[in-house]
Specification:
The chain is globular. The chain is an alpha/beta fold. Helices cover 36% and strands 18% of the residues. A five-stranded parallel beta sheet has the order 4-3-2-1-5. Strand 3, helix 4 and strand 4 form a beta-alpha-beta unit. The protein has five helices and five strands; from the N terminus they run E-H-E-H-H-E-H-E-H-E. The two termini are 21 Å apart.
């Protein structure tokens, strides 16, 4: 199964939610997946993680954004926060949920093989 790598380029919690669902599903099927949050999108990881639509999702029996992050990490999805995004959002690595790593776009792309699926959301 080809690796799935997703770049979240905006601070839109619903785009991140969708990226996490797809990455977690891919990992649950035995594939490798990674999600890279670029620039302002890193702010979505500020702990405690909360998203505007969390209440609606929970009311529908769906997980919150924080629960999706935990689930994805538990399935082996790599979550990477852009180093420049950390600075832009006034965050430190210690401010991120446990298991989220910091890195840059060059390293993310260097780790992206020729056969990987690369999505930009």
């Amino acid at each position: 199964m080809r690796e799935l790598r997703i770049v979240v380029a905006t601070a839109d919690a619903e785009r991140l939610r969708g990226a996490l669902v797809m990455a977690a599903a891919h990992a649950a099927l035995g594939g490798q997946a990674a999600v890279f949050l670029q620039l302002e999108a890193v702010g979505l990881l500020r702990t405690p993680v909360e998203a505007p639509q969390d209440a609606a999702h929970r009311a529908a029996g769906l997980p919150s954004l924080a629960a999706l992050i935990e689930e994805a990490l538990g399935l082996g999805v790599a979550l990477l926060a852009c180093q420049s995004g950390l600075a832009l959002c006034g965050l430190l690595v210690e401010d991120l949920p446990p298991g989220v790593e910091a890195g840059g776009p060059v390293a993310f792309l260097q780790q992206t093989g020729d056969e990987a699926r690369l999505l930009f959301v």
